Amino acid sequence: MAIDSSIFHAGTRALRVNPGAAGYDWRMLSVPSPSSTFWVRLYVRSSVDLGQSDHNAYFQAMTGDGEPNTGDNMEVAEQYCQIVLNLHDDVTLSTGGETRCGSNGVKLPKDQWHCMEAYFDGAKGGVQVYANGTKIIDKTGVKTLNYKTFSFGYLGFHGPARTMWYDDVAVAPERIGCAP
């Protein structure tokens, strides 16, 4: 990871997550969540489309302390050529998607900034995910989880390799919203 002053959404810098190794690749930063129910807002950009065929993750709410193999991780990820929600390989598809590529699930184009928002309701077992102001995932009745940490960056399981950028990341008890 590095601070990048050549590509950024606002201000003068963004966090660049450089391509990693093939196979399992954990490159994430973790911060404490304000409670088990919280909102996040982050601007994300990738050198490949977000929504590849195989499982990789961009950010997640965690019951552990940020160590990837401790506790439960509710991932905002990709699989089946779309953005998905993934908890222990139990996948919730984005709006319009099916468990196959070409099924009209939500993808986000490469080389553009996208405002992503997520509401993690650990107390009630719900998750909502928004992309550029549009709700793309609305899941209720998921396992009740006591979230303690929010992580963002890149968690690669299958690739392809990519560079990702994050800017204007915020974690709060209330919805923050996207700047115009």
Automatic annotation (TrEMBL):
Q: One of this protein's Pfam families, by short name?
A: Polysacc_lyase-like
Sequence ranges assigned to domain Cip1-like core in this UniProt record: 2-172
Q: Which domain of life is it from?
A: Bacteria
**What's the protein name?**
Cip1-like core domain-containing protein
User: Which taxonomic lineage is given here?
Assistant: Bacteria, Pseudomonadati, Myxococcota, Polyangia, Polyangiales
